[in-house]
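Example record used in the benchmark description.
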Amino acid sequence: MIASTPPAPYYAVIFTSLRTDGDQGYAEAAERMVQLAREQPGFLGVESARGNDGVGITVSYWTSEAAILAWKHHPEHSAIRERGRSTWYARCQTRVCRVERAYEFSL
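Model output (structure tokens):
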């Protein structure tokens, strides 16, 4: 699903990961994190894809850096992030960006 975002500027958090083998509760936790993020002030949307090689990219969109930091420090999100590092991810990287321009095309 392509997220609907407002006119720029806004912020994007790009989370790139390489999964370990097996689910080990990952799908349920990922679904819960999206549900929880949607409840956070400043959340605008999310897009996610994962390749057959285990590499995934999730981009979440936010109104401000303060909203991103609040999400980062949310207790449930923090606990799941630690589980990701110990169980679900062989490698991961997070990038925070300010979206200055955005373009769209649709039929």
